[in-house]
Write a structure and sequence with these properties.
This protein is mainly β. Strand 3 and strand 4 form a beta hairpin. The relative contact order is 0.20. Helix content is 12%, strand content 43%. Strands 1-2-5-4-3-6 form a six-stranded antiparallel β-barrel. A six-stranded antiparallel β-barrel has the order 7-8-11-10-9-12. It has two domains: 88 residues, Elongation Factor Tu (Ef-tu), domain 3; 93 residues, Elongation Factor Tu (Ef-tu), domain 3.
Length: 207
C-alpha cells in the first residue's frame, strides 16, 4: 500500500525479456542497504516486487547510487505501459507505506486500473493544468475534489467533464516527478480512489 507521494525518480537501466515476462533494472537514489529483497516499490504507480539489488559502481556522476530489479508478469504488462518503457525513461518511485508513516496523499494500492490519455496541458501561473481522459467505464468513480493516482502521483480532481478529469500540478510535483516529461497525447497509468470504488459497490448493492 502507498500514499501517492513520490520520493524518487528512477531511471530504467536494463530491460530483459524472459518469454512473456519482463525483468527491469531501475537506478535509484535509495540506499541499497535500505531496500529489502521482496519489498514492494511503486514504479510509476505499478506495485512491483524487488528481486535483486545492488550499488552503482564508484564514479557514477548521477544522483543515483543504487539499483533494483523487478519481474513483470504478462498480466501486469497487459494493463500498463511497461512494455513500452525504454532505457533512460524516468520512473516515479514510492516505497510501501509503514505503520506510523505520514499519510500525505491518499490510499494507493499500486494495482493500476489502466492507461489514461492526456488531452491538454496548460500552464497557469506557476502551475500546470492537465486534462486527462479516463476510459468511460470508470466515469462513476470520478468526483470533483476526489482523489486519483496518475503515474503513482496522488492528485485531487478539480473538475470532471464527462470522462475527462482536470488536475493541478504544483511546481514541486512538476519538478520532482516524471509528470514534466508528459505532454498532450502522452499516456500514463491511472488508479481510481479505493474509497470511491467501495462506495459505488455499496450503492450498487442497495439500489
Amino acid at each position: 500500500m502507498f500514499t501517492g507521494i513520490i520520493t524518487d525518480v528512477g531511471l530504467v537501466e536494463i530491460i530483459q525479456n524472459n518469454n512473456d515476462d519482463i525483468r527491469l533494472s531501475i537506478a535509484t537514489s535509495y540506499d541499497a542497504d535500505s531496500i529489502a529483497i521482496g519489498a514492494s516499490i511503486a514504479c510509476s504507480g505499478v506495485c512491483l516486487t524487488v528481486t535483486e539489488k545492488g550499488e552503482i559502481a564508484n564514479g557514477e556522476t548521477s544522483k543515483n547510487k543504487s539499483w533494483f530489479s523487478v519481474d513483470v508478469s504478462q498480466e501486469t504488462i497487459s494493463c500498463t505501459l511497461i512494455d513500452q518503457w525504454q532505457k533512460g525513461d524516468q520512473i516515479n518511485l514510492e516505497r510501501s507505506l509503514k505503520f506510523g508513516d505520514e499519510m500525505g496523499g491518499h490510499i494507493v494500492k499500486g494495482h493500476v486500473d489502466g492507461i489514461a490519455n492526456i488531452v491538454n496541458v496548460q500552464e497557469i501561473g506557476d502551475s500546470w493544468r492537465y486534462d486527462v481522459e479516463i476510459p468511460n467505464k470508470y466515469k462513476p468513480y470520478l468526483a470533483e475534489k476526489g482523489s486519483i493516482s496518475l503515474n503513482g502521483i496522488s492528485l485531487t480532481i478539480n473538475e470532471v467533464n464527462d470522462n475527462v478529469v482536470s488536475v493541478n500540478i504544483i511546481p514541486h510535483t512538476y519538478e520532482f516527478t516524471n509528470i514534466n516529461t508528459l505532454q498532450k497525447n502522452s499516456k500514463l497509468h491511472f488508479e481510481i480512489d479505493i474509497l470511491s470504488r467501495y462506495a459505488k459497490k455499496i450503492t450498487d448493492n442497495i439500489y
